[in-house]
Amino acid sequence: MADPATGSEPEPVLPAGLVAGVYVQDGFGRISYVNDKAEELLGRTAGELLGGDPHELLHRNPDGSRLPRPNCVLLQAFLSGQALSLDGCQWFARGDGELICVGGVSVPYEVDGAPDGAVVVFFERPPGDSQTPTPPENLEALTDLADRLTMVAETTAVLTSTLDLDESLKRLVRLVVPRLADWAVVDLLEEQGKLRRVAVVHHVGGRHVRVEELAGPMPPLLEGSRMPLSRVLRGAAPRIVTPEDYAGPPDSGIAVQQREMFRAIGMRSAVIAPLRGPGKVLGALTLIRTEQEKPFDAAELALVDDIARRAGLAVDNAQLYERQRRVAETMQRHLLPPLPRIEGLEMTVRYHPAPHASRVGGDWYDAFRLPDGATALVIGDVVGHDLQAAACMAQVRNMVRAFAWEHAEAPSVTVGRLDRALVHISDVQLATMILAQVERDGDWQLRWTNAGHPPPLLVHDDGRVRFLEHGAADLVLGTELPSTRTDFRQTLPPRSTVVLYTDGLIEARDLPLSEGLDQLAGFAAALADRSLDEFCDQLISRALYAANEDDVALLALRVPGTP
């Protein structure tokens, strides 16, 4: 996560004048942070240390030879997730080739209950003192420092591993409660400056319990309020709060709610820290002690401030992602239009975005009336599943509509005209598509052409299924190769269903295409008697592979029974 002012990851808050070196080791065994004293003691710059394996860089035998990995107690502690006191002499290699004897502690940190790294706090000791244990008071101070640093490391790890705002807040609360407090409260400033209490969590009986009745919209934030939460939300520094701070008359609605909450839960000591994003305050984190008798102190205030800074950047990233997702979904809804109402026909569509993309993509469907009364149906796929693919998809869709409306031609002729025009007046590289026309001349008829797309699936009401087209589909669009395109025609039996779909429904990495088609046909047969909406929902639910990495569009139509 980046610091609002510098754009770099915020460094842990360390006591001023710390004479011990510190390095943080991530879950992959790499050094992810070093302090200035560590650089001095090791004779190496941060650039030389960051990203390196501390065992390979530092750990040595007394003669300077490389310490075998099975013999390294620091490596053993890291791999086992155990704390270690460095009594005796551990030899570290300096950048100039000299060795130093160090003592100190190594403390692991966890993410979601599993070891994910360690913080090593070390200091130089004379080799002659190598058999002298670290004094208890020094060891206690070093262990306390290491514990705080592990908490900072855990905060960074757990909050940067998700872009989901709710999940970020859940992880934050699980991290600080009950290790630092009995209660955690998160307030966020929303659009137009409205304040919402999004989380009130209490640790009781070994569980984290959300107290929903204390959450919800908050009174407006007033510029003139001098009470702690209002000041922090306006950008003031974090502060320790006691019941005496709320003994006097409240000066705002926020202060009233805060006082009532503190009284209801029995607050003894609290810390309120701002959640800062780039250039602005996004909300506040309040940690409250009710069962723990020890009040917060200055060192803990600095620790909470550090955690809140990192949480603020995570909240900002999650909110930015959420805004982008909403924009993308709005764009996709406008690119994929509602279906026309056709007397006698049922039609429905489904769109499932790629799970790891931008929520928009190159898969699309379309349906519209033609001047001669027929209905045009389109299913298509432009290469890619991102905003660029979505923009290209919109170009193709608009061109198809224009050509199909202007020229009363067979689908193959329209698609041939489109293919010739794509390379000259669009940014599309490659695309597949089925263009179909549904019309009624006594029986319902489907006429279509296929440009490299998976074949339509016909589902009879008695459960018989077959893929339409007996030969291979024609060339995909955008190759610039001469191509003869074919029209197909199929009479649609009463109560039958036609399914047009994109390849994300039948493909997955390392899966034969034939297997995907066979599974789709089997699922469709089992669902033939369901309503069209349930048919589509269940078909996607059953056929979509867990390993799917592509968008999925599906258009289904069902003809009526015999009058």
Assign the structural class, choosing from mainly alpha, mainly beta, alpha/beta, alpha+beta, or little secondary structure: alpha+beta
| Spatial gap, N to C terminus | 65 Å
Residues in β-strands, percent: 25-35%
Largest sheet geometry: 7 strands, antiparallel
- Low-confidence spans: 1-8
Global mean pLDDT: 83
| Overall helicity | 25-40%
Care to count the β-strands? 23
Radius of gyration from the alpha-carbon trace, in angstroms: 32 Å
3D architecture notes:
With 563 residues, the chain is of the alpha+beta class. The protein has helices at 36-42, 46-49, 54-57, 73-80, 136-159, 165-176, 228-233, 253-265, 298-335, 387-406, 411-425, 513-526, 532-543, and strands at 21-25, 31-34, 59-60, 84-93, 99-111, 114-124, 183-189, 195-204, 207-210, 216-217, 239-241, 269-277, 280-289, 346-352, 363-369, 375-382, 431-441, 443-451, 457-459, 465-467, 488-492, 497-501, 552-558. The strands form four sheets. Strands 7, 8, 9, 10, 11, 12 and 13 form a seven-stranded antiparallel beta sheet that branches. Helix 5 (136-159) runs antiparallel to helix 6 (165-176) and helix 12 packs antiparallel against helix 13. The termini are far apart.
